Amino acid sequence: MSFSGGFGGNRSGGGSSTTMMVESSNVGKIIGRGGSKIRDLEQDSNARIKISRDEDEDGMKSVEISGTDEEIENAKRLIEECLSGGDFGGGGGGRRGGYGGGRGRGGSGGGGGGGYGRRDEGWGRRDRDGGDGWGRRDDYDRGGSRGGGGRGGGGFGGDGGGESETIFVESSEVGRIIGRGGSRIRDMEADSGCRIKVSRDGDSSGRSSVELTGSKNAISEAKRLIQDAGVEIVNGNDRGRGGYGQDNSGRFSNGKVNSQVKQEDVQEWKSPTPIDWTSLRLEQKEYENRRFEGLPPIVKNFYQEVSEVAEMSHEEVKRIRKEKNNIIVDAPEDGSVPNPIRTFEDAFYNYPLILEEVYKQNFVTPSPIQCQAWPILLQGKDLIGIAQTGTGKTLAFLLPALIHIQKQPIPMKDRVGPTALILSPTRELAQQIEMEINKINYMGIRSICVYGGGNRREQLQRVKKGIEIVVATPGRLNDFMNNSIIDVKHVTYLVMDEADRMLDLGFELEIKKVMLDIRPDRQTVMTR
Questions:
Q1: Residue ranges with strand state E in 2-123
Q2: Residue 434, SS3 per DSSP
Q3: Phi and psi (nearest 5°) for 75?
Q4: Angle between helices 393-406 and 427-438 (to 10 degrees)
Q5: Where in the sequence does UniProt note compositional bias of the Gly residues kind (predicted)?
Q6: How confident is the model over 214-230, as pLDDT tens digits?
């Protein structure tokens, strides 16, 4: 069993062969990563090199070198330089001046200069002398003479005849054509008989050119193989300009620039049509109206201001707000802020069951945020409330939520999905909110807390039994929404508790998705 550096069949034509022995530990230096080094050795010497996979009892492996006497000597010299750590590429005969895509073998004169030149773009097939060996084409422009000596002609990028066609593919798909270590492009060339050159540099449209050279049948077969690899061939005319390497615009041919441009390849630049944002907003509004049409109307205002609160003077309002930890209010230009309440009765005198639940918890007086938030929320207005932790924010939005749920025109037993949704950034906070809800027994309103890490099956079963309040973290809520377990289209009271923290934790996209499924005329509360 042997390793072939050329990945192809045997060379045709005459010649002799010789065998040299190397230590097994040094074989890797000759083969190189993925066979790259042995291919370079073959290219530089023009000899055929085969390494046995079996070692003898002395730990040596045989290296068979085939070719002319001169080629064999060059190969032996390069292998010895490789094993000794030298950089092969200096002056022996048979080295071609520059690597092109040429078919067949050129003259044998002209030793190459040492070292490597600049790397050319693309991968492709390099036909060996009279055989079908394969290697990287134009992988390096070696530092030899550009003159007539060497294989494949001395010209940079020279062609060996045949037709040429340039196609275009998405730059992201180039890897599917090349394959790992260039294996797929070599197989395509072998199967089609067509030379394939892929540009590694994409244009501004994100497309790369693929140059196919060969007979018509070979080019057609190569295109089929490229498409079979899952690569879509795109229309080059969509680029709007000639790309580097195209036949008709700026192509390098025999080392010279062809500046001729056909008229049909020149397209007039058209400025983009400006976006009509006003029309887009109107279309979005119309879409929302169609999506949520047929839903029952929302009743939001349940507040009846007692005379003692309504008749407060401006100075008295300022004094109460200052006494209540210096409450600061900011209303929109076209709105007003109701006066703060002083007692629980001021806010809920019309709701004795709520007052009874409040008394059970032995609260003495409303907290500062409750004094101002309850009148606002009971009027059905949106609210952004900012207060320290432990100041009663949960009850500030929870008690108005209970009244809102109970006062909607559709009976609770006939509703689809929850009426109130409370979003929380963490599982711990969601569980705390659920505990506060469970302390209040009002009109048989049911709630559930859904969060990641909890028993999903148990949460699912409770949702199916029917609930009016959902306390949820954004991730688990989106999971239930995506699986049609929770429908939030009928939510009319939305709370985002500690909204700033949810954004800090990266829940922006989940929150936006939830907002898209909730009717836009809802009542919204945000706290931080």
A1: 2-4, 16-23, 48-55, 60-67
A2: helix
A3: -65, -45
A4: 60
A5: 1-16, 86-116, 145-163
A6: 998 889 889 989 988 88
Between vectors from CA 143 to CA 139 and to CA 146, what angle results, nearest 5°? 95
The CA-CA-CA angle for residues 292, 294, 298, to 5°, reads 80
Contact 494, 424 (CB under 8 A): no
Whether the CB-CB separation of 115 and 89 falls below 8 Å is answered with: yes
**Which strands make up the sheet holding 523-527, listed edge to edge?**
383-385, 523-527, 493-496, 420-423, 469-472, 447-450
Question: What's the rounded Cα separation, in Å, for the pair 363 and 385?
Answer: 21
CA 38 to chain centre: 38
Q: Structure tokens of 265? A: 């390849």
Tens digit of pLDDT for each residue in 307-362?
999 999 999 999 999 999 999 999 887 778 999 999 999 999 999 999 999 999 99
Angle at 466 between CA 462 and CA 471, to 5 degrees: 65
Residue 264 CB coordination number (10 Å) = 8
Q: Which two tokens stand for residue 126?
A: 């390099």
> What does the alpha-carbon distance between residue 365 and residue 344 come to, in Å, rounded to a whole number?
7
DSSP bridge pairs for 167? 210
DSSP string, 278-290: HHHHHHHHHHHHH
* Cα 208 off chain centre by: 20
- Tokens 């066979």 sit on residue: 35
**pTM to 2 decimal places:** 0.51
- Give residue 267's pLDDT: 59
Counting runs of H as helices and runs of E as strands, what totals does the chain give?
A: 18, 16
CA distance 14 to 129: 11
**DSSP for 3-36, written as a single string:** EETTSS-PPPS--EEEEEEEEGGGHHHHH-GGGH
**What are the backbone dihedrals phi and psi of residue 275, each rounded to the nearest 5 degrees, phi first?**
-80, 130
Phi and psi at residue 61, to the nearest 5°: -125, 145
CA angle 207, 209, 212 (to 5 degrees): 150
Three-class SS state of 211: strand
Quick one: which of 188, 198, 142 has its CA closest to 166?
A: 198
Distances (CA, A) of 406 to 258, 295, 414, 420, 436: 81, 17, 13, 11, 18
Is the dihedral angle over the CA atoms 511, 516, 519, 522 positive or is it negative?
positive
Sheet of strand 60-67, all strands in order from the earlier edge strand to the far edge: 2-4, 48-55, 60-67, 16-23
